[in-house]
Records
---
Amino acid sequence: MRDAETATVRLSEYTPPAYLIDEVALVISLEPEATLVAARSHVRRTGDTPAPLVLNGERLELQSIAIDGTLLTTDKYQLEPGKLIILDPPVQFRLDIVTRISPATNTHLEGLYMSAGRFCTQCEAEGFRAITYMLDRPDVLARYAVRIEADKAAYPTLLSNGNMTESGDMEGDRHFAVWVDPHPKPSYLFALCAGEYESIHDTFVTKSGRIVALGIYVDPGDSERARYAMDSLKRAMKWDEEAFQREYDLDLFNIVAVRDFNFGAMENKGLNIFNSSLILADAETATDADFEAIEAVVGHEYFHNWTGNRITCRDWFQLCLKEGLTVYREQEFSADQRSRPVQRIKDVKRLRARQFGEDAGPLAHPVRPSSYQKIDNFYTATVYEKGGEVIRMLKRLIGADAFARGMQLYFERRDGTASTVEDFIACFEEASGQDLSGFMNWYDQAGTPALTARGSYDDEARTYCLTVSQLTQPTPGQTEKNSLPIPLHIGLIATDGARLRTTVEGESAPREEHALVLSDARTTFNFANVEAPPIPAILRHFSAPVTLNDGLTIEQRLSQMAHDPDPFTRWEAGQSIARAIMLSGADMHASALAAALGRELDRAQEDPAFAALALRMPDLSELILAAPMPDPEALFGARETLRREVATELRARLEAIARAKGDASFSPDAGAAGLRALKSAALDLLASLGEEAGDVFEIAFATAANMTEAVAALEALGASGSPAFD
Ligand code: PHE
Ligand code: ZN
């Protein structure tokens, strides 16, 4: 490895660029093994004193450099690994650089490369420097105009960012297209695609009346399978107008699906590039989970148009500024399209499965890291998922109204800039009038806070004291931890399920749910007017990304399952009971758990997807993590035993659900998917009965009308140990 790649980059050492580039005109003449890139940049120095211009470049074959039309001789510049240094440039000048690259042999999936005979690009984070020499950093924003030239027969479609202003034929079977993006952008948002595609088209009219032409480009033969992605895109555009007052800002929005792609998708301005697995779906080849993922990722990339593109990051340490915020927006979109509680529970499961482990292991890092060697390694669950949780907490801490005002202030004030987390938070300090300096610890401190909560009830005074403490364990490189401001949404119910309306110091009226904040290492909250011994739900809606030891008994959790108004709390209570039973082998509560799950089945028609989640027991990997001395075989056995007991008690109802015939005509919408999820969960539980379950799986498989049902039936058949599986 070269030095340039191993040097540590530090947030504290950020310096503004010595030069800026306002305009870039590219002429890209495509040839698989010898593409010529002519880049004309308008460059100006930012400081008062002369300085060399240091451009980034990787794997480029330099053909020529000229300043204001005069070719540079070799004594006027230096080529170093990863760099082109122009030694003594004027204050302001026109820079012409011609380079040659070989997309066909580029196997990095970065820069300009080929996938299935088509050209495509990937520039985030530092891929543009493999296309031409550039100030390849997100705080250099330029307007791009791109002329693409290529063989007309082999590459009939030529796409880039912005709007197409011109196209036509050239000599020798070639043609060209000119794309102009009026919005200044960092180089990482540049994109180019060229090849033979099949496409579908639609239009979207923005709230101020702009007509946007939408296109999705896929492999020939695949276009019908892009319909759901198109539908998701239109819903995302509408949603951003309603939820965040964000309108689209070009006449075109294109998506290209690519088979060879490193990540899920990429938000290039006006030309999103997707891994085709996140575009293509139909009833026969995709499950509901695939449809859900398409909707979420199409939304995510579209939402980046404002949170990422219009307002971008000053440097890569600020990655969460665009990713955490966009994850939050994507999750809210999905919650509004589907069941909000189910979305929340799925997001929490994902956070716990992917991010909590990161926080607890050797790679723990803050949402905003302070140093890196390769930024590519920081596209993590911490930056994305915990970054999203941090935004959600901000909203809880300052309230929905101040949050909405802060977002609008951010969009107005920071539009067109490369910003920092501080710039973002400043908007919310202003909108809320609160000092958020303590909140910054959520960005800069790694680790998952562990909360412990214990309460005591005073029968006579009708008061309840709840003491909550927080502790964050040291993480590599960060031994001292500060206390964090942790939003707690607390509700009290009585054993019989009555929702207790109580008052907490500082609140004017009694409430069923309190939005409180734990700011210190330890705080006692005093509740008054508590009419019965309470069962506290301390983290309703999973109000913060923490672990919680609340010391509740299984009986108390059973009451929560039956009565807590918050679905997340009900789900969490069921999971804790199941986990406790499986870990201790104490199954005297199994039939109470079955009864509680039975009540979820009774009200399943309200939200079948929620009932489906409730029926799913914690999986083996979760048990292994929770056990002090894990014995996987014993844990597997305990899990099956509990599942069998629950299935036996609920058998009649589970069978009725499992045998119900699904709709012959398939709709991927949330309502239909929820019913299928419930049926899948019922089949899964019944599988624990083994042979005893009879022919229910075979019938479910034989009558499956779509991929979701077929996969669920097949999995259950396999899990039941039936010989029919073979
Ligand atoms: N910015 C992309 C997203 O989150 C992820 C990505 C990063 C894709 C780097 C490719 C390369 O939407
Ligand atoms: Zn993103």
---
Amino acid sequence: MKIDILTLFPEMFSPLNSSILKRAVDNGILEFNVINIRDFSLDKHKKCDDYPFGGGAGMLMSVQPLYDAIKSVKDENSKIVFPSPRGKVFNQGKAKELSKYNHLIFVCGHYEGVDERIFQLFDMEEISIGDYVLTGGELPSMVIIDCLSRFVDGVISKESLESESFENGLLEYPQYTRPAEFMGLSVPDVLLSGNHQEVDKWRREQSLRKTANTRSDLLDE
Ligand code: 4FD
């Protein structure tokens, strides 16, 4: 999968170059391309923002640099994502859906938003990572990219995907590794019993209890 990222702050994307995502890039499964929107400004000072018509606080991103930046990477198979507080809220299901595309384009907004005409010029899906406001779309883009990448074939093992929180509609059960005792705290006996049926039953109960306690809204669905 090829992922183009259009941003005024390319240096913010260095985290894509570590850990699991780096391994996926090295293995040829993912390709990231970080592009500076400023390089497309036709203004003599490379300006990319301006005051809103009608007045109001702050600045908007100008439509011209954005338009030319998107034009430079888009083809008929591209899916364009625009992280924004006014989008539908992101979740695992949306991540899975996005992971099926061969080409994604992330457009990172800044200032108080963008000139609305960009949404008339391109089919862009606005997606929010939660009900709060950030200084730019860079962190939301990285959150969405990290999450969807896990669903791309070969990025992580199938088993890891299936056993995690949300996959069965519940939060994850408690887990333990060696040593069996630390600072007087021991691991639940059932996990050392070797009885897989009992282990599965215990984990299911723990998942249900955790979900009921902190995210009972998940049990309604
Ligand atoms: N909740 C989110 C996304 C972007 C953002 C921006 C319009 C502000 C939060 C377009 C207004 C982009 C989110 C940048 N803050 N800030 O997903």
---
Amino acid sequence: MRLPLKFLAVLLTSLGLLAGGGYAMLTSMTREWFEKDLRLRSQLAVGAARMGLVEAWTNRSGVLAERLTDITRDERIMSAAACSMTGDLVAATDGYLRDFSCRSVLERIQRDVATEIDAWTMTSDLPSGRVQLSGHLVLDDGPPLGFVLLVHDLSFLGRREEATRDLLLLAFFVLALGAALVTLLAAKLAWRGWTRDLQRALSGDAPREFQPLVRDVRALVDRLSREAETRTGPWDPERLRATLLQHLKGERVVILANREPYIHVKTPHGIRVQHPASGLVTALEPVMRACSGVWVAHGGGSADRETVDTRDRVAVPPGEESYLVRRVWLTEEEENGYYYGFSNEGLWPLCHIAHARPIFRADDWKHYVAVNRKFAAAVCEEVDSEDPIILVQDYHFALAPRMIRERLPRATILTFWHIPWPNGERVGICPWREEIISGLLGSSIVGFHTQQHCNNFFDAVDAFMESRIDREAHAVIQGSHRTLVRPYPISIEWPVHWLAGLPPVEECRRSIRQELGLPADALLGVGIDRLDYTKGIEERLQAVDELLTRYPEFRGRFWFAQLAAPSRTKIDRYRELNARVETVANEINEKWQKHGHKPIVLLRSHHEPPAVFRYYRAADLCYVSSLHDGMNLVAKEFVAARDDEKGVLVLSQFTGAARDLTEALVVNPYDFRQASDALAAALNMPVAEQQERMHSMRRLVSEFNVYRWAGRMLVDAAELRRRERMSGRLSSVAPQRTTDGA
Ligand code: ADQ
């Protein structure tokens, strides 16, 4: 408010000065007007009395003094005298001042050659006040009879001038005040508009006319940050930690995910720690090790309850203890409804185009809502500030972001959807689609693997929600809340720490072939998955069959090892798949057995990460045949495992990974013929070409690793927080918030 006050003072002073100058000018002007007016009145008075004057003058009737007295009835005319043309006094009213004798006046007029008697005036300051003298000829038919001198009272002029000055000053004051108020109001409105525009520009919601500018600025900032990124080198745990410290002031991270990174299970040999087969855990665990904080998850292991403290927490990783896992307990009913039911029989098939019918039960939904609330409450218990950073993971927690936001309005909530987001039409199948989308929009950022998934999400928001979509700024705006929707292609740690203790590739090749009872020179393909119908395991085995059918040279030389970790076995569809995969593997093996060859090695069990990586290293090719997959980290793990730069990746075009790993042999897994051609090409590929392709993919995965994925999300979150804080600051300066609160 200081600026407007100063401005007001300057404005009033300037107007004051202006009023002073104006007053002087106006005084001289009004004086001129009054004098003219006086002269006119005198002429009129003398003109009106002319007949009487002439008669009295020519008849010398002695009433000339009376005629003069008639003239002085005008309140401004004090006295009058009649003079001959030779300067003699002919008659005068009482009180006529002898100072102004006829002769002296005539002499004055005669001295001033340019002035006629009829136009003569003179002002004089007398002790009684200022007076004006004016001369008027008295004409008959012949030469003038004489002239009349009138003495006017000018003291009223002073009074008038005073009144005029007062009025003028008052008018200037009122005018100045009015102008100042109008200016202030305009300035305030402009300031408000400007700050609102600035706020909106900062928060990404710039008015239309500023949008090109904001776009350019954003593009520049993006380019600069990309350049800065290249300058600062590859992303690693150190850099991620530094980013967290620099941009988020070391604030700890709270992750919410259904699956925990370390499961304690009871075995005949005591309690063991297991690493779950989960892409989400594979990606996020290294991030958590780098950042520290709390990972809130369902405690599903048989020994989980025995290993937590009184607050249901356990420090992990074992031996390192760099962060905490907070376990949330679910009843069997809750788990059935929320996890197996709504999440995996409803949302999972809804989001994947893999020909499984989504099943939506009202009871499952009820549990889904209740469990989301339960986890949201646990998250709120784990935060240590009013504006914590919370990473919500996956389709199990679509409602949690809004529930958390309700309790922690200032939280930065980054939600990552690890599976595809389907098109709007498909989303419409879900009876609770509005609730799901609205829940997600409680986030500050919603991340997907690809731009396509983001576009699908925007379409769904457009179809089912009351909101404004700013595709330019990648945001959904609901009232005062803004959610950024961005692609963040997920990845794996680089280098993979599990590789550290593993033997060289040659040794892995030899030992694995030995363990599987295969010849030392056997060609080996691998498939590594959770047993899930979206992974296209049946189609993969069919493609191997097709290979042997169409390329006889590989009969008796090629084997395919499928590691399949049982998953969601409580669900019929998964149990059916388990049975189908076994049947298909048996059928193929039986078919080729007559050639003395059982090409499929089906290992249906969970393998700890070092075992998985040994297979990657031992293989000649890895076939990822997902029918639909958000990203697929197996493809990236295979690349990471091959420090010998050998081996070929055959990759489904329906994975997010196919967009990054273009040096893979990309296939349509439904097309067995094409897939078998790719398998044959992989097995026939010269080592130099293998190395060239692998080299390029390794460079890509090493650079676009999971630290970069997390780093970019956190940097975006920090940027968002900065903007929010700044617009909050501006709001406190701005007189009022706008209706949309932007
Ligand atoms: P997932 O569907 O779990 O992930 P994926 O990305 O391939 O799929 O990750 C699977 C993980 O489990 C890998 O780390 C792999 O090594 C491990 N794994 C597979 N089979 C195993 C076995 N038999 N034994 C032990 N471990 C095994 C979801 C989405 C993906 C997305 C990830 C990450 O479905 O599209 O890439 O999240 O966002």
---
Amino acid sequence: MNKIIIEARVNELAGREENPNVPFTPEEIIRDSKECYDAGASVFHFHGRTPTGEPEHDPAFYLETIAGIREQSPILINPTLGYVAHGGDAKERFEAVEQMMQNPATEPHFAPMDVGSVNVDWWDPENNTYTSTDLVYENSTETLLYFADRTKHHGLKQYLVSWNISFTRQIEAFMKMGVITEPAIVLLCMTDGTSLSGHPGTPEGLDAHTTFIPKDRNLLWTAMNYKGNLLLLTEKVIKEGGHISIGLGDYPYLELGGTPRNADVIAKVVEQARSLGRDVATVEETREILGMKAA
Ligand code: ZN
């Protein structure tokens, strides 16, 4: 079977109430990148955070963190652009990437493209109410075409994200237009708990996503569950030839015992993939699978 690409999603906007091992500072994120690489992850996704866990949008944070990650291992770097909090026009939103690309030591390998728009308010399932009512993750077609153009210009791999089937349809349209480079990879977003923005993190939620992956296109998929336990679905993903994006940014994974680190979650997926007959892709193999330049 095809080798599996494992991506570590180490912090997102997660707090430390349930698991104190969520990394915030550049030092903590850099340490996690090495541990996750050693455990078998070939892609690393992180968000800038302040020492108290607030979102950190200063490009300097990203430059320092990426340079540190690159010194520790060859893991492929997939930073966020902090879209929701930024707002602003396309050029402003892509500015951090433009800065990263000015120095080989701070270059990421991927730039994200969430190919559509969605309400991302927080749901309180205990009290059946929203705790926010005005959060829209807005990505106009014009903005996305700008991102596609700039990622191509820089030779970055486009990291596509689909929150629901309408996103996947726009990805297919972009493929027909030639603005997305194949082979492409799409992160199929499932959400549970306090987020209702993606498909449910159930077999049916995943099936609804994968059913609409265009079969005549070279589009690989990886699965995540924001605010839900992806380990309930990883066996299905592994058996269906998908890839896995997982970490403490999405869910504390206390089911693994104690308070696991990101690398413990990665190790669990590696063990499961191997036990089901799928080898884990190294960084070089991941580059090859995704049609990226060799290091
Ligand atoms: Zn993220």
